[in-house]
Amino acid sequence: MPDTLIASRQALTRLLQSRKMALENIRGLYQEVGDAIHLDLGQLTGLAARLDFPLAYVIDCFDDAGSDLRHRVKICRKQGQFERLRVVGSHKQPAYLYRHVMKTTADKHLMVLRTSPLFTRAEDAPLNGGHQVREIVYVLSGRVGVNWAGKSGKRRSEVLAAGDSIFIESWVPHSFHALEADAQILAVDYA
Q: One Pfam annotation, family name (predicted)?
């Protein structure tokens, strides 16, 4: 059968359950071949329409290859996390110590970082070029300065204390600097 998606019966059942449906609700939109479900492009399109999901989402639900989820979750242990030092500028100054808290193949745009800003003055912390993903930053400890370029390009700044947070839209140039030695932030990047 050319151009056919082959999936497990369990994967299709799980997808249907997300809409409180069962296999009998979609008769004719798949073929059973042994323990597998076969769907051609027309059936996939019909299934997506019936479930009111984008076609790409339906296909992703069947694609478990390369997934790092186990039983639909991913747990990251402290000892499995890694750190990296980010340097900036022509003098390669250390800017941030990143500790990767969470990264998963289930959502390629999601990244969670526990970060220590290493600059201590706003004028030393150059704005990055912004990035495609949106970002939520929560201050875990200490106080940090955040700098960003407003719509006009004018540099803006604010002080955030432990418990404060900020949302940064895609492509907004920004930077952080530590106002206290123990300052740490949790950054969640997502699309």
A: Cupin_2
